[in-house]
Amino acid sequence: MATNPYIPATPRAASGLRATALGIALLFATSAQAAGEEPWLDPSRSFEDRAASLVAEMTLEEKVAQMQNAAPAIERLDVPAYDWWNEALHGVARAGQATVFPQAIGLAATFDVPLMGRVATTISDEARAKHHQFIRDGSHGRYEGLTFWSPNINIFRDPRWGRGQETYGEDPYLTARMGVAFVKGLQGDDPVYRKLDATAKHFAVHSGPEADRHHFDARPSRRDLYDTYFPAFEALVKEGDVDAVMGAYNRVYGESASASQYLLQDVLRRDWGFKGYVVSDCWAIVDVWKHHRIVETREEAAALAVKSGTELECGEEYATLPEAVRKGLVSEAEIDASVTRLFAARMRLGMFDPPERVRWARIPYSVNQAPAHDALALEAARDSLVLLKNDGVLPLSRELKRIAVIGPTADDTMALLGNYYGTPAAPVTILQGIRDAAGSVDVTYARGVDLVEGRDDPAATPLIDTAYLRPSADSSERGLHGEYFRNRELTGTPALVRTDARIGFRWDRGSPTDNLLARGEAAPGQDVPDDGFGIRWSGQLLPPVSGRYRLEVAADDGYRLYLDGKRVLERWTQADRLSGDGVDVELEAGRAYDLRLEYYDDQRDAAVRLAWRMPGAKPPFEEAVELARDADAVVFVGGLTGDVEGEEMTVSYPGFAGGDRTDLRLPATQRTLLEALQATGKPVVLVLTGGSAIAVDWADATLPAILMSWYPGQRGGTAVGEVLFGDTNPGGRLPVTFYKADEVMPAFDDYAMEGRTYRYFRGTPLYPFGHGLSYTRFDYRNLRTSAQEVAADGRLRVQVDVANAGQRAGDEVVQLYVRPVRPAPGDSLQELRGFQRIHLAPGEQRTVEFELEPGQALRRYDAARDDYAVAPGAYEVRVGGSSADARARATFKVEATRK
């Protein structure tokens, strides 16, 4: 039997009785099964049979342990440890270095399904390669497996939701098409072995508020449930064959979404035929008894979740299942069915077969962050950028003498990443991208203001540049001497010794590899743990001028700073976020000062910065305005980052509460600076970063150009620089509606769709769903349909001619919407039912064709049937460049269904 790297080499100690039984069974094994091979290792059998044979050998306690995300090894059965928790929202996340693509909302803005498939395939290549390297290193921890908890296909129904950035926007059809492409790219096309397991989350009615998610009961109308919240999940199950579904924290109609008979059994399995497994959101089962109070005890909560159809728990409540079985709350047979489904999934991933049988195991580690992947990240970033407004100032001319780049997200890598990200090898900030694209144009920079008011922003002070640091008095290098330890006490032999140019690092959960070298990416013996590590930097500080300096250290967690042997700053305690302090010191030019910075990380996220403000430095706001006055044009880069919008945050700021937004406008600090820059009389281009709609009414009325960049990934800065100078033509479109600042939104915790999204919003948006400008112009002509009347179960072909009427090549996203000519009460205003992104040269014309199936495209929930139905009558097809830009229209009729 070939060696399986998943299985430890330690011998299994089996009882004599069991060994005898297995020996007898082996006498009757098929000829394909090697002598001594267990039945669950026999590749000639189905995965389900193999899994059942393995589960039959386990004790109840062993089975239950396998139903928790951090499943332990069962040495007597040669079952290795496995942690089901992995993330891949827009690249392999929290597992060290990986290619970082635009955040999910930015990928949706491409309106490009084939591109999404290529991105997902690239992510799965890197995930497979990294996994097998971890296995070769004998590591089986979190973020090292093959089961990925992505994509997030919840509907971004309200722009205040901090996690909306993780979704594909507000439209069920766009979400379904992008989600299916992502799942297929992750799971691969092998007829036997899955490449990865994708997970559709969070089923099913889940989109904020973050502060209420552990106790909230969502009760949408059945129509909103079926027409808005269900379709993407149904598509991923039926079309994408997604192998896993994650439940949500909140209740739906009184049931916990992670322990819901209605959602998980009646809809998911009975109606949709789902064959995979369900995983709870992390610690959602705790909520069943502790916050939702559906039951009174942990055992009851665990039993209810299993009986409802949640096979795998992220959390620890399932540890009580043996007691639940003994109390008669759940049967061991129900436990067996769950564990069997889980092991069948692992076996389908090839975990119990020789690697030579698994096509995906042959992907070399060298694919990780390959140049082609970086090029794809750049392509995706380019295609995600949405030009919201342009009065002709763009593209910028390279004949300009000086451009001032100003704003809090211009030189911030967090503005590229959003949340759930990996570590990019060489991220290009927007400032750097503009400088790279500017040619001979002089580019100056000032941060100007903090991201939001009231936030002690540690990134506001400039890092000490490498030119003013050296490792030792006799060194010709620049930077500081770094010693990396496997403990927080900074004791023993360092795992890694190197010179670091600047001390400004930030790491998401998982291996901190933009600085440290993690397993699979390090030379032997250089690996540093994910948590509980320490670093000592030492060397000399070389001040360029004499005067009073402000030295600042910020860290998550502890730090100590020494100057000439004297401790000047210290906080040797755990912190829940990046924070720090500063000290004023008198320094003399021409003198070298001994400098030492010590740092430790406790757990989860880690970060450290060593910064200073030099003598005579102007206040940041004043510096920014002065640079604007001296420039020919200004590019203001601002908006949001994942520091203020995201998942259930513990800190809040003006306009933000726990990761959600309470104010859709640009933060007040930025608005004030933007107004001051505009008052200089210089043309100001606004580049927005963020994962949600931002109400920039004043900017739209006043500034000549606005570009939405989202969180554009590792090459986002390059893409922005190219678009600003016209090297590429923007073609992204909005996957969400941008509302005006004074728009009164429905209550955030109201899950009714009326008044929300382009489908039910009856006002005038600032920018409509599907909106996006270009440096060229497109004309639509000759819309035609294949028939004037079609059966509900028939097909209708729709064609339109699209021409590039401008002087530049560019991309157009041709969008098809349908609506009933005589809408019934509760009908949406219109529905996206087709889109194609096409590239046209100047003067080029192309016929774009769509095929509509009324049974899918026109179905609506029918309360009388408690199911979908297609209403007969007249419908209008609208084709154009956005939901508010119908360039061509046609009508057709749907025949009444014959009895």
Automatic annotation (TrEMBL):
GO molecular function: alpha-L-arabinofuranosidase activity; beta-glucosidase activity; xylan 1,4-beta-xylosidase activity
Keyword Signal: yes
Chain ranges of the PA14 domain: 475-628
Database matches in PROSITE patterns: PA14
Keywords linked to the UniProt accession: Hydrolase, Signal
SMART domains in UniProt: Fn3_like (SM01217), PA14 (SM00758)
Coiled-coil intervals: none
A biological-process GO annotation: arabinan catabolic process
SUPFAM superfamilies: (Trans)glycosidases, Anthrax protective antigen, Beta-D-glucan exohydrolase, C-terminal domain
UniProt key word Iron: no
Similarity comment text for this entry: Belongs to the glycosyl hydrolase 3 family.
Name of the molecule in the record: Beta-D-glucoside glucohydrolase
